[in-house]
Amino acid sequence: MAKHGKKYLEAQSKIERGKFYAPREALALIKEISNTNFDSTVEVHMHMGLDPRQADQQVRDTCVLPNGLGKTVRVLVFAEGDAADVAREAGADYVADSDEWIDKIQKGWTEFDVAIAMPQTMGKAGRLGRVLGPRGLMPNPKAGTVVGVEDLAKTIEEAKAGRVEFRLDKSANIHVPIGKTSFEVDALYENLSAFMAAIRRARPAAAKGNFIRRITLTSTMSPAVRLDAYATQNMD
Questions:
Q1: What does the pLDDT read at residue 2?
Q2: Residue that finishes a domain, picked among 146, 161, 176
Q3: Is the C-alpha dihedral spanning 230, 217, 135, 143 positive or negative?
Q4: Do 139 and 189 belong together in one domain?
Q5: How far apart are CA 121 and CA 114, in angstroms?
Q6: CA within 13 Å, CB half, 148
Q7: Domain range holding 140?
Q8: In the prediction, which pLDDT does 13 show?
Q9: Mean pLDDT by 10 residues, the chain (236 residues)
Q10: Is 4 contained in some domain?
Q11: Do 29 and 136 share a domain, yes or no?
């Protein structure tokens, strides 16, 4: 059993054992018990009533957080010709419009947070699967990162503003960041509410019974605060 330090135990002592917190109360508490010397990331962890082995019970979608993530998001776009110009004008940090970029990424360069591709450039992006796949950076239509030129500018803007991707993992869990501990409680609440609305929309038709079984809230290196699943699912 892992031993925790004094700061962690002090934080843990402020969490009432056995209590399921209302969303706003939980967010205020997670801000209070954060004890890092940097701006910690606030994360939501959910255990779902889904079977990840079943194709009709998968969850994968995106959500734009109204108050962003509190960090600069670096966007790379695989585009050519006029689309490359659109990407630059929309604020893409990098535009991979030549084989030189493919070679650079194949050698391990991944100094970006989101990769977006046009359908016609997915052949080139696909050659980078071994580099981008394990890092969660491979463009994917289900994640909204493979788009036509008509949606390119909006997709770049949303990515830089704080769009997050969420998906069911092999253990039937979903993990997603919703901001920083420096955010006001109201800002975190709005982000959490937007995420929960996206989760409700993403519910598979094949889902039966209790869709969300457990929800917890953490910040970097902090103990978890358990959320009232019913109240959290019904945030407005």
A1: 56
A2: 161
A3: positive
A4: no
A5: 16
A6: 1
A7: 75-161
A8: 87
A9: 74 90 96 90 96 93 91 93 95 94 94 93 91 90 90 93 90 95 96 95 91 94 92 84
A10: no
A11: no
The domain total for the chain is: 2
CB 185 within 8 A of CB 24: yes
The CATH number assigned to the domain holding 151 equals 3.40.50.790
The amino acid at residue 93 is: D
Residue in this structure with the two tokens 């830089």, named with its chain if needed? 160
Q: What integer pLDDT is reported at residue 92 of this predicted model?
A: 96
pLDDT at 48: 96
Please tell me the distance from the alpha carbon of residue 156 to that of residue 119, in angstroms, as a whole number: 15
Region class of 26: left (phi > 0), else alpha (psi between -120 and 50), else beta: alpha
Q: Does pTM surpass 0.85?
A: no
* Assigned domain for 6 exists: no
**End residue of a domain, out of 131, 161, 191:** 161
